[in-house]
Specification:
It is built from 3 helices and 4 strands.
């Protein structure tokens, strides 16, 4: 496991005036939200599916911790992950599912290489679009989890954390 120095207290504060939102086809599969060619529309994930995804991710993480990484976390094409989390990075899957279930639109994720491989970032990231109605719910959850929230350049929110799983 790799842990990188990072402080959520050093993040620029969340600016509500910069929030963007997308509807219908703008947020459908293939829309390329957040400049992500691999964006997958996960809007409306039911709570029961979130519970299932959390259990699957927990099992996958425990397997990696016990046996070492056999893959790079469900986005490397190894075929070793359950289809419900395939294409997402182990370590951020549950956050992506939970945000989707309350109506947010996650558009990118990175586990920061916590399983030992190099990644685009040195910390956990989930980029998502957020309705104003959900700001306080997400802020409270972020505080409780000890993660930071800040704006990205496209009107989305970046959820950032530096933790060892």
């Amino acid at each position: 496991m790799i842990s990188h120095p990072f402080s959520v207290s050093g993040l620029p504060p969340l600016s509500l005036s910069r929030l963007a939102w997308f509807e219908g086809a703008e947020a459908a599969n293939g829309a390329g939200l957040g400049r992500n060619r691999d964006y997958r529309d996960l809007r409306g994930v039911p709570l029961e599916a979130v519970r299932r995804v959390v259990a699957i991710e927990r099992e996958q993480v425990e397997s990696v911790l016990a046996d070492g990484p056999g893959c790079d976390g469900c986005d490397d094409g190894c075929g070793g992950c359950d289809s419900e989390i395939d294409g997402l990075e182990l370590g951020v899957v549950s956050a992506v599912a939970a945000l989707s279930s309350i109506g947010c639109i996650p558009y990118t994720n990175c586990n920061g290489g916590v399983f030992g491989r190099e990644h685009m970032a040195d910390f956990l990231i989930v980029g998502f679009y957020l309705r104003r109605a959900h700001v306080e719910t997400v802020r409270e959850a972020a505080r409780g989890a000890g993660v930071g929230l800040t704006n990205d350049r496209e009107g989305g929110i970046m959820f950032l954390a530096a933790i060892a799983l």
